[in-house]
Backbone:
């Protein structure tokens, strides 16, 4: 190195390096805490104990439990939900319904989601944040599917993605989370056909 060469840059003294394994342990602890004690009784201290880390490790990543929950829960809800491209809107909708139906049957989702929605009824802040986070988790996927379908001429251009999310998620949640039932493969086929017909009608 010559005198003109700049000195190698170093991280600022005391800068925290966030380890991925610790972050994932915290996320897993959040889901377990939500399932066991619920949102109202969940604490950052309890999350840290379950994850086997110090409280500081949790607070370095999230300043309170609300942003932590909003980071973890939508990711679980959208898990395994890539943008399908079957070549038809019916095939894409059917694929999304199948993945979403399986997600709602996940033991953690079945325990966590009703509790969060009940808590959201008492907390406008949680309600709005949860609404926004869940829509964001699914909205991009649905918008991409609608764009593909519009390009093929299957639906009108500019079809509302928010309406499509309602048509896709509403019946599934009502049947599986509220009534405690399930859709058979034939039932999902019928639901996919009805959803496509509604979207195609404009």
Residues:
């Amino acid at each position: 190195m010559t005198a003109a060469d700049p000195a190698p840059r170093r991280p600022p003294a005391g800068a925290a390096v966030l380890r991925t394994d610790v972050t994932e342990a915290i996320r897993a602890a959040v889901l377990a805490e939500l399932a066991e004690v619920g949102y109202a009784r969940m604490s950052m201290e309890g999350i840290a104990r379950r994850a086997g880390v110090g409280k500081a490790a949790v607070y370095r990543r999230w300043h309170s439990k609300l942003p932590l929950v909003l980071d973890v829960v939508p990711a679980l809800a959208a898990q395994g939900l890539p943008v399908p491209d079957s070549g038809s809107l019916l095939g894409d909708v059917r694929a999304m319904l199948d993945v979403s139906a399986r997600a709602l049957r996940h033991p953690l989702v079945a325990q966590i989601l009703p509790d969060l929605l009940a808590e959201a009824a008492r907390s406008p802040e949680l309600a709005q944040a949860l609404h926004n986070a869940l829509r964001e988790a699914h909205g991009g996927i649905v918008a991409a599917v609608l764009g593909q379908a519009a390009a093929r001429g299957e639906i009108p251009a500019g079809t509302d993605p928010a309406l499509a999310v309602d048509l896709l998620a509403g019946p599934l949640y009502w049947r599986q989370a509220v009534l405690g039932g399930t859709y058979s493969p034939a039932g999902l086929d019928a639901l996919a056909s009805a959803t496509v017909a509604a979207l195609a009608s404009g």
